[in-house]
Design a protein that fits this description.
Blueprint: H1 4-25, H2 27-42, H3 50-80, H4 86-115, H5 120-124, H6 130-147
Helix pairs in contact: 2-3, 2-6, 3-4
């Protein structure tokens, strides 16, 4: 008989494997992870309140969660039928639409929190230090490489 802590650890392991699967197999998930990490990396420059930082974090995670649900539904549909079916297409389109709506919501929230009425030159002045600028360039380069890694078809 397994103990409760062991069951909890197993459930965390399974959730970790699901996230890793998405990172390896879904380019759009990697794009959303990159965008979210970039926003979180730049957010200290804006001196957000705890509430504003929480809203920003929640919106980022909603997009990632929707991307995971989209991947799950697409794989489930592929498991059920390999033939073209209009209902299968509708399910896939609906789940992709949900991701798109959550991403649009994140963009709107990001616009109002990050860009609207902000002096961008003054905001990004702290990034102009050599070390910080180099670390940002390295982060952006590594993210671009990770985003454009080939999609792992063998995982599906």
């Amino acid at each position: 008989m397994t103990t409760v802590p062991r069951k909890i650890l197993k459930s965390f392991k399974y959730s970790y494997e699901g996230i890793v699967f998405c990172l390896k197999s879904e380019r759009n998930f990697r794009i959303h992870v990159f965008a979210g990490l970039l926003v979180l990396y730049l957010s200290p420059l804006y001196h957000f309140t705890a509430l504003e930082g929480s809203v920003l974090t929640i919106v980022i995670f909603i997009v990632l969660i929707m991307e995971i649900f989209n991947t799950a539904l697409e794989n489930l549909v592929d498991l059920v039928t390999t033939d073209y079916h209009s209902l299968a297409r509708i399910v896939k389109d609906l789940s992709a639409g949900a991701v798109s709506l959550s991403a649009i919501c994140a963009l709107v929230v990001g616009y109002f929190m990050l860009i609207d009425g902000v002096n961008l030159t003054a905001t990004f002045a702290p990034l102009l230090g050599t070390r910080k600028l180099i670390s940002l360039i390295l982060f952006l380069t590594a993210s671009a490489v990770l985003i454009y890694l080939p999609v792992r078809k063998d995982l599906k």
